[in-house]
Structure formats: structure tokens, C-alpha cells
Amino acid sequence: MKTGEKIGPDLRPPAPALGGRLGMLLARLLDGAMRDAARAIAFKAAGAVLMLAAFALAARVMDKAGFGTLVVWFNGLSFVVVVAQVGQETWIARSWHEHLGAGRDAEARGALARAFATVLVTGTIIGLGAAIFAVMTGQGAYLAASAFLFVLALTVFAVSIPASRTIVGIGAGDGHGEVTWRSLILAGCALLAVSGATFEAPDFLLIAALAGFASVALQVSAIRRALPESVRRARGVVDGPAWRRRSASMWASSLIDATSQFLEVLFVGLLLGPAMAAGYFAAGRLAAAFAMLSGGITNFALRAIAKDFFAGRAVQVQATLRRLAVAVAAAVAIGLAGILAVGGHLLTLFGADYAVYHTTLVLLSLGTAAVALGGPASAVLVLTGHERLHAVLLGASVAARLGAVAIGALAFGAVGAAAAYAATIATTTIVLVVVARRLVGLDPSIFSLFARSRVEIRDGAH
Q1: I want to staple 343 with a disulfide (CB 3.0 to 4.6 A). Which of 8, 128, 231, 339 is the partner?
Q2: Is residue 123 part of a domain?
């Protein structure tokens, strides 16, 4: 099937009974693909818990204003890291299997080398820019140096994760990307806390940077060992115009997504102050349990779509997405029940006065749960050649969301900001699912449990 090909009229037969379909899906949840998906989600879950522990420890050691400062710098620099990636994290995930599957070993090697060379340069340049900004705003040399190392390390790390996941496997990519990195951060924070030394924002950023460099070294070593001999012997070739065109579109999508993910906390901090930003961030970290589900699914889907979709196995991709939807729906139901029941107690991990953000946590969780139920719709669009449309849709979504968050925050504080976030992100998710279903023929969402996708109707799959 050609990318974006229209798949005829939607003359779908009646869908099988939901009970029978669920039974068949549950019976197949433990196949090889689903085990890989479960591993990806498990790594995401472990990483989320480790990072939550690291931030909770920092919040308890620092005062609320100091923790708010850390939150603002961490989120701001994380956005800068996405700027420095210039779309290379998606470029390598898409290009590797596309070239390797077509026997283009030289192009596969060239794509890998170009991705790493690019982020080494951009990470250095933009990291220096972040350091200069820190000095100009009176933050001091220590924070400036920490900011530079953070941006450089995390920019390269952001490419080594998908590269090792694609070339070596989920264990090397997500294992080091989620667990190793965050374990080292938690260990460093714990050592600093028990030593009785002053714990400030630059300390956390430096620990995260050093942990990032260590994790990159492990992943690069794994990639070197796993490279196919044919690729190892090939002389790298890159189609410059195609690389620039694709990277630009993928970069735009990444930037827009990062604007929503990282700048929202900065926005709340500017409107309501660092202390309120700290509370919003704490609630957001717990609500990220559902974002963790989305991230795990997307990480798995990136590999599955790049490998199977371009090999003409779209029906198999849809079957895997449907089975993922069953598992995600169950996890979301359990997670929301837990947030409602004990969310206030969980917030006290950051300190007793954070419990007042329980309503904010519930609203943010509803939004991130909606994204999880929508499945990897963004990955489906970006990896099948619709990255420009995806960028346009996300751009409109982010503009609407930031406007709604500003209005909500000024009117009702953190609760208003969270309600605006939940409403706009849920709407965006539905739009992305509908577009993916119509243009690609794949339905990545929970709606796939109730009706067959276009690729299945076209191929007569049951």
C-alpha cells in the first residue's frame, strides 16, 4: 500500500460481537510482539517511578521556591534539547528499517552516522547558547556549566535511545534510556542528600547530564556490537535533500509536541509563580503514569511500524495495535481508580503541602489517560509520510492549549490550567486518531475494538 493511498469506499461488514473479539484478543496478548510491547511499557514504568523518586527526593531536600526553580530550568532545558535534536531521533527510527529492508546498507549506515554527527554539533552549539543565557540572567557559572552539559548529553542521548532500540532491541534502547539513566540520577541525588551538602538546581542538572553521558556510552557500545556485517563494511551514503526535507518536517512535529510537554510548566510558573509551578509539576509527574503508557506504546510502535508497515504487513500492524489497546484500557481503568482513591497521599511524597493539588492531579490524569487510549496516533502519521500534516495539527492544538491554559490558570489557578489541558489534549487525540484512520487506514486507538480498520476491510482480514 502506498503512503496516503485512499483505500476505497468504507463498506465495512458488521463487526464481530465485542465479547468474542475481546476473548480472541486476550488469548493472543502473550505473543512475541506483545511481549516486546510489555517490555517497553515496563521500562517506561520503571523509569517513571525512578524519576518520580528523584524529583520527590529533591522536593523534600529543597524548599518549595528552590524546587520550583529546578522545575522551571529542567523543563526549559528539556525543550532546548528537543530543539537541538533537529528531528534526528525520528529520522533514524524511520530510516534504518526502510533502508535495510530494501538492501540499501550504505544508506542505512549513512543515516546512522548523519544522525549522531548532527546532534553532536547542534547539542554543542545550542548547549553553549543555554549557558550564555544562564550567565546573562545572573544564574552563575555553575548553573551555566550544568546547563551546557545537560543539553549536550541529553541531545545525543535522545538519538542513541531510538538508534539502539531499532538496531539492538528494546532492552538496549529503553533499558538504558529509561532505567539506567534514571537509576544513576536517583543514586546521585541520594548520595548528595545523605552527605548533607547543599542541594540546588545546578546539582540536579549536572547529575542528570553525567548519567546521560554514561548511558550513551553503554548504548553506543551495544550498537557497535549489533551492526550487521554488511552495514559495517558499507561506506555511508546520505541523500542530502531527502534528509533535510524529512528532518525539517519531523523536527517541526517534535518541537510542537515538546512545546506542549515542557513549556506548559514554564507557562504556569510565569503566570502563577515558581511555588504554584512546583505543585503543578508534582501533579503532572504523577499523571505521567498514563503518559508513560503512551510513551511505551509509541516506543514499541515506532519499531513495529517502521519494520512491518513498509514491508506490506499493515494488517499485522493493526492486529498488534488492537491488542495493545486492550492492555492499555485495562491499565488506564486501574490507574484512574488509584488516582481517585490515593492520589492525595501520593502527592505527599513531594511534601505534606502538595496534597492540596489532588484535584489538579485528577484532571491532568484524565487528559493523559485520553492520550493513552488514543494509542500511538502520532507515530502512525509521522512514520507513514504524513509528518507535515501532523505538525500542522499539533501546532493548532498547542496554540489552543496554551491559550486555554492561560485563561484557566488566571481564572482558577492550577485547577483551571489542568482542566484546560485535559479538555484540549483529549480533543487533539481524537482528531489524530480520526486522521490516522482515514489517511493511513490504521486505527491505533481503543476505538479499534469496536470496528475494523480500513486496511482490514481492504484485505478482507477478520
Answers
A1: 339
A2: yes
What is the number of domains present in the chain? 2
Same domain, 287 and 388: yes
Same domain, 63 and 12: no
Q: How far apart are the C-alpha atoms of 56 and 421, rounded to whole Å?
A: 23
Query: Of the candidates 209, 238, 267, which is a domain's last residue?
Result: 238
- Who's near 230: CB < 8 A, 6+ residues apart? 105
Task: Return the closest-CA partner of residue 380 out of 326, 434, 311, 447.
Answer: 434
Radius of gyration of the chain (CA): 22
- Determine, yes or no, domain membership for 217: yes
- Tens of pLDDT, residue by residue, the chain (462 residues): 444 444 444 433 444 444 455 445 444 544 555 566 677 778 877 888 899 899 999 988 888 788 888 988 998 899 899 899 888 887 787 787 777 766 778 888 888 888 899 999 999 999 999 999 999 998 999 999 999 999 999 999 999 988 898 888 877 888 888 899 999 999 999 998 888 888 899 999 999 999 999 999 999 999 999 888 888 888 878 878 888 877 777 777 677 666 666 777 777 877 887 778 888 888 988 887 777 766 666 666 666 666 666 666 777 778 878 888 888 888 889 889 999 999 999 999 888 888 999 999 999 999 989 988 998 888 888 777 787 888 888 888 888 988 999 999 999 999 999 999 999 999 999 999 999 988 888 888 888 888 776 665 555 544
- H helices then E strands: how many in the chain? 17, 0
Q: Is 15 left (phi over 0), alpha (psi -120 to 50) or beta?
A: beta
Please state the pTM of the whole predicted model. Answer: 0.71
284 and 140 in a common domain: no
